[in-house]
Specification:
Blueprint (H helix, E strand, L loop, with lengths): L1 H47 L9 H49 L12 H9 L9 H4 L5 H13 L2 H8 L1 H11 L2
């Protein structure tokens, strides 16, 4: 058993090593992603917001202010549109997750396990109250009694059934049956 314990310890150690390696990998991936996002942000800002150069004359300053004001308005409209879209999407998400929750609540799937079940019980489960026919095959089997075996012996002694039929056919046969009291 010590060999088995060593094997288990080795497997556990290997699992722990793999777990820590995966965590380390995840941390480096997250760091890379954050750095890439920062670079993307800087590029976007550099493209959208060129460095400001202030002109000397008052008229040029007023023109610049008008341009900036117009830009601020257009950006604000975009921001508003994006916000509305986001709210709409969040609402849809909430509705869908509520639907999911409701469905999960209604149809809770039970843990299934194998069950030995008679044909009778299966029919009852499938058909419910409509199920009247008894399918318990063992109960429907006739019980063999001593008398039955004696009757069978008598029948065997009668011999070939064809001969028996021939004897009982026609008026002569009916007469014999009537006399025998069959």
């Amino acid at each position: 058993s010590s060999h088995l314990q060593k094997k288990r310890r080795a497997a556990t150690a290997r699992r722990q090593h793999l777990k820590s390696a995966m965590l380390q990998l995840a941390v480096t991936e997250i760091e890379k992603e954050a750095a890439a996002k920062e670079v993307e942000k800087q590029n976007y800002l550099a493209e959208r917001c060129p460095p400001l150069s202030l002109p000397g004359s008052m008229q040029e300053l007023q023109e610049l202010c008008k341009k900036l004001h117009a830009k601020i308005e257009s950006v604000d409209e975009d921001r508003y549109d994006t916000e509305v879209k986001l709210q709409k999407t969040n609402k849809e998400l909430e509705d869908l997750s509520q639907k999911l929750f409701d469905l999960r609540g209604k149809f809770k799937r039970p843990p299934l396990r194998r069950v030995r079940m008679s044909a009778d019980a299966m029919l009852r489960a499938l058909l419910g109250s409509k199920h009247k026919v008894c399918m318990d095959l063992r109960a429907n089997l006739k019980q063999v009694k001593k008398e039955d075996t004696e009757k069978e012996k008598d029948l065997r002694d009668v011999g070939d059934w064809r001969k028996n039929i021939e004897e009982k056919s026609g008026m002569e046969g009916r007469k014999k049956m009537f006399e025998a009291g069959e």
